[in-house]
Amino acid sequence: MSANPTTGQRIQRTVPAFTQLLLDNLYHTHGQAVQSASAQDGYMALSYSVRDFLVERWRKTTEAQYRANPKFVYYFSAEYLPGKQLARNMLYTDTMNVARAALAAHDLNVDDFIDLDIEPGLGNGGLGRLASCFLDSLATLDIPAVGYGIRYEYGIFKQMFRDGWQVEKPDGWLMYGNPWEFPQSDEMVMVGFGGTVESSTDDAGNACSRWLPKYQVLGEPCTVLVPGYATETVNILRLWRARATEEFDFQLFDIGDYVKAVEQKVYSENISKVLYPNDETYQGKRLRLQQQYFFVACSLHDIIRRFHLKNDDWDLFPQKVVIQLNDTHPVIAIAELMRILVDQYGLDWDRAWQIARDTFAYTCHTLLPEALEKWPVDLLEHCLPRHLQIIYDINYRFLEEVRSRFPGDEQRVARMSIIEETPRRQIRMAHLATVGSFAVNGVAELHSRLLREQTLRDFADLWPDHFQNKTNGVTPRRFVQLANPRLATLITSTIGADWLTDLDQLQQLEDYAEDAAFLTAWRDIKQANKVALTEYLEKSIQQHFHPDSILDVMAKRLHEYKRQLLKAMHIIWLYQRIKANPKLVVAPRTFLFGAKAAPGYHLAKLIIKLIHNIGTVVNPDPDVQGRLKVVFPANYNVSMAERFYPAADLSEQISLAGKEASGTGNMKFALNGALTIGTLDGANVEIRERVGAANFFLFGLSVDEVAALRQRGYNPMLYYQQNTDLRNVIDAIATGGFSNGDMKLFQPLVDALLFHDQFMLLADFQAYVDCCEAAAEAYQAPDRWTRMSILNTARCGFFSSDRTIRQYCDDIWRVDSLRVKA
Ligand code: F58
Fold first, then answer.
1. Is the CB of 278 under 6 A from ligand 1?
2. Cα(76) to centroid of ligand 1, in Å?
3. pLDDT at 258 over 80
4. Which of 286, 421, 472, 658 can bridge 662 by disulfide, Cβ–Cβ 3.0-4.6 Å?
5. How many CB atoms neighbour CB 165 within 10 A?
């Protein structure tokens, strides 16, 4: 075959050309005639048509990258939360208007098709969403980059509520096909598991090892296109899907064990079957380790193939490849690269180690020690015996270095060892990550400091230059332009459109913070967004809230450290005040929640139940007269978040100081003009610094105060005894006030609060309630509130993921952009 198809005539942004493209795709790509096409068929045809615009740019990008042989960023993440693709891809290909017009001519509405788009739920929360924001910014900044991950057949469970209890349902997101992926079976990779290690000596007398896996699984890459905004670049996200190897099946077929052969196929394919819904407590689940190794092995194989297209000297590898490890989940890659270099390519250990260490960089996303992964040594021995040996070798050499720097300090050696000895022998993946990387970073200033000073302190003593901060960011394209078109239009008509790729431009909005017409426009938009949200909730869950009430939103994974329970206690406090004095003047408020709890996290599920029960008591109470309303729609995800941010007045960021690594929802709310009520935790600190203390509702203990209080001996019972309001709130929960008199139901929550209160809700309760009151009071002065809202948006340009990615490029990755010509 000669040249590529000339896409020139096919891909045009005119209504007749787009109409033709739609019909072509409906008929030829999707195999459906217009007369019999369903809405789903129409959706597929539209998606293929928009995708055609991307493919052209993708091919150009690939060509330009091949020609230039640049350094690539490879982002390794077990989770991604891309959100819906169709609307984003229409924005990025500038096809929204032409598609709308082409469809309208046939009495079809583009928005109906956008609704049919399925959100891939390939992550649990912030970490996965950050990965997707980063891919968006990498492409927008023209950085040669590939994301690698797992194509889970079932993403994060679908949440339903039954009588206020969370019920999980499988998320079969691929049921109706996925127009956004290209399965590339010609680039499948074989991955081994189990087996033994054969040792020998080569002709020169060197010890050699060869891994003889017990069985193999195939990894098939499914490529998803990741367009940049306002640029030609289209990068890729490669998600690996596990497939059974045919050889394996045939062996079993040969001996006539048909059912066993099929079982093995199912077993192999299980590896990419389901995303682990995890709750920050580490569990040594074999399938999870297999998932991690599977995607990392496939990805490294792919990277090495790509490297060898143009390069043959291994010493050049770190000049062409940088691999960012998104948390500890892909950290087994360090051992795998060593295995490939030493066992397969025969490099000597020191040279291989130099290459590996110059290639990897590690981002930590937590401070909770229980969330740092550890793998039992016996599990590793069973699944990845050669990798275990390599980890031992890495550790041996590393501890020699520690001993020579700190002679006689065996306690330090034990603390730093990659192997934990007691209570059980385990591999500390965060230590392996730190030892095997040239840079380690936290995700907000405070988090990075605590990493250096506490969690990884010994390592920071040894290698201070390794440690960096990269404060998280979010993409303004998805979280302002797409999520909040009304606000985006106002901003663009006021300061021009450059803010979409240079978010610091939002500063210019400060000039309008005193402009009466602008204030009115700003307020009207918030109001319209609230109305739109209440209509959506009415339609989807038959719940209504008053758009004039303060919309107070808490949306994030359900975890005790995030303190949704503290929010619940505040609502009870308000309710009790109204009950005590129904004539009391209270600002009408709507409390909107979005949260999934890990299925095995019982206390988290009980908190969900409590919030629901508060709603069933408070919402219909005639004394309340609609002044308080609790709304908790099921199945919070990226798409729902995109509806929440534009409408929110108040953003709840109330984790105990020192527990939330960064938070990114906090940034999305603030950029959409919500005011934050929050603690000095994670990126809240930096948000407050930027928006100004006067435009942020601060409460609660600081990290140092938390530490001092713990040091003195924290006794939650004292707070309970000394604060009548607090006691009334807890007593109401304990005595069945929100469980029809059942005093057992919420007892685990009450006991946790009174006898442990690990996250110090009782210590922060009064300050929190007072701060909520201050916020409600401030809302009563609409002009002042609106000014604060504008200043939040205007001063949060820093929190663009474009800025974060630029910093990664400059300080860690040392990569350059490569502009693709149109
Ligand atoms: C989050 N981590 C942090 N983990 O909690 C949040 O502060 C931060 O802003 C964000 O990362 C991005 O840096 C997070 O979302 C997970 O979802 C884990 C996935 C694996 C199991 C345990 C939870």
1. yes
2. 15
3. no
4. 472
5. 12
